[in-house]
Amino acid sequence: MHHPTSLPKIAGFASIFFGVVTAAFAFISKSPEPAVYMGAAGVILCLVSSVIARKNIDELQMAIAGLFLSIVATGIGVWQMYNL
Predict the structure, then answer these.
(1) For a Cys staple, 53 with which of 4, 7, 8, 33, CB 3.0–4.6 Å?
(2) Tens digits of per-residue pLDDT, 17-51?
(3) What letter does residue 53 receive in the DSSP assignment?
(4) Any stretches that span the bilayer, and where are they (predicted)?
(5) Which residues contact 84 (CB under 8 A, 6 or more apart)?
(6) Cβ neighbours around 53 below 10 Å, total
(7) Residue 8 domain-assigned?
(8) Up-side HSE of residue 71: CA atoms within 13 Å toward CB?
């Protein structure tokens, strides 16, 4: 039986995936500018996906988790910019 995937579910998965990739890049990378730019793009993507997924709590939780990881990645990039 075919189970269609909804747009909020895809947005939630994309949000958490991009948040994890961005946070991993910020930890691994030694250059702060790309980490800040990717983190800011991740924050914008996660905010858009949280607006899309606001009616379903499961997808909203994934979007918020991705938002948290993107904010952490942005913070790491800003910290690297001023302390390294």
Answers:
(1) 8
(2) 888 888 888 888 888 888 899 889 989 998 998 89
(3) T
(4) 12-29, 35-53, 60-82
(5) 30, 32
(6) 24
(7) no
(8) 8
Is 2 part of a structural domain of the chain?
no
Model pLDDT, residue 71: 92
Place of tokens 């990881």: 69
Q: Domain range for residue 71?
A: 30-84
To the nearest 10°, report the CA torsion of 62, 67, 69, 74.
170
Query: Letter for the amino acid at 43?
Result: V
Number of domains in the chain: 1
Count the neighbouring beta carbons within 10 Å of the beta carbon of residue 56.
14
Residue 31 is given by DSSP the state: -
